[in-house]
Amino acid sequence: MITHTTVRAAGPRWRRSALTAVAAGTLAAAACSPTDTLSVTDPDIINPSDAQSEAGANAVRLGALARFNAATSGGESLFLLGGLFADEWINGDSFVARWEIDRRSITNENTFLTDANRVLHRARLSAEQAIELMAEYSPTAPAWQIAEMHLIQGYVANLMAEHYCDGIIFSAIVDGREEFGSPITTDSTFRRALAHVDAGLALTLGTTANDTRVLNALRLTRGRILMNLDRPADAATAVTAVPTSFQYVMQHSQTTNSNQTWLLNNNARRYSVGNLEGTNGLNFATAGDARVPVCVGGTAACTPVGGTNARRDDLGTPYHVQMLWATRDAPVSIMRGVDARMLEAEAKLRANDAPGALATINAARTTVTGLAPLTLAATEAARVDQLFRERAFWQFNRGYRTGDLRRLVRQYGRAANTVFPTGEWHKSGTYGSDVNLPIPFHETNNPNLPAAASTCIDRDA
Q1: β partners of residue 330
Q2: Which fold does the domain 51-241+432-445 belong to in CATH?
Q3: How far apart are the C-alpha atoms of 236 and 242, rounded to whole Å?
Q4: 272 - beta bridge partners?
Q5: Structural domain boundaries of the chain?
Q6: pTM of the predicted model, to two decimals?
Q7: Burial 362-382 (b: 16+ CB within 10 A, else e)
Q8: Where are the beta strands (DSSP E) in 192-323?
Q9: What is the pLDDT of residues 407-448, one digit of tens each?
């Protein structure tokens, strides 16, 4: 996919001028020739020359971070849309494109997924450009700044592979011109993500807070990718050094980049926390779990977090409101140290060390007041259920759930209709059979895409 990026093609931009005569009281207006034109600088156009300096390279880096924010908790991203597709959220409005996602019956023209896809590509392309510019104009920049740009590219590629069907496309901007990519499989996309993360880890990082922050984020992302590649032991090794207290935080504000979870759930009521959705869904809304605190809209408990209305935007009930992020500007930790512990627990379970897996799970639970220790489930299948439930509550609305459901099909051999929401949809009709998201229709403009009815190579989990 090609998108507009922070650095745009060179060349002057001319805009049609408006000739205006102004008169006030006895002041005469200055005369203008009809042939006079004015060259107007468009403030949203950044020419390559504007970025060809140390300050310009750093501005592109900061722009990549802003776009990364929009591609995660600062936009209606795959965090929300993926959770809607899975069982973290149910639809609470009348937008048909959101209905498609919630019902698991998605057309590739879906506008919400198109927008989310564009933002993901903008983030990775901006990070790619920042690395090139910093190498040329800011060669003495701290290594963690370059590493964080590799992190963005690896994180985005992995997130896309967790959600999309085979046929993901990575296009590029080379010397200011579009270079179209060709469709690749999700497995190849995971490997692409791993290469980006390894490039970041290959840099010599220091011991400052920023160095440590980026290093742990790279380690976590590497572990997540390796688990997706069905390498559980390697995944656990990758995250061993990540402390449970670690957080990689996205900041938000009321004037620039709102916390979209609060905005679309608490405030706009377009999303409602899921509860046993489609038979197979978890009881996020009613579990009473301290990791996913939820209130019912219109009650006294919901008033402090903005859930003052008793009904969803579509006037339906119940309307369940998350309380993790209580305000429009609440920060979001998109990566947390507990994610490392869940990878370690899964690796132990896969290695037939069920007691060790449970011990790791229970050690993580001690970090939250009110979580009692779990007991060992009786069967192997029940232990897998127990682990994935723990993952779901620790990682609620952080972009993990769709990937986990797909892994249950792909790596654990479960049937899709025992994993994804199924049966009667909560509004009308029945759930579809989608187990991933389609590649957006606009990719059909890519000349490298084979002529076909679908943009996906296949729709398998």
Answers
A1: none
A2: 1.25.40
A3: 10
A4: 90
A5: 51-241+432-445, 334-418
A6: 0.89
A7: bebbeeeeebeeeeeeeeeee
A8: 247-250, 271-273, 294-296, 320-322
A9: 999 999 999 999 999 999 999 999 999 999 999 998 888 888
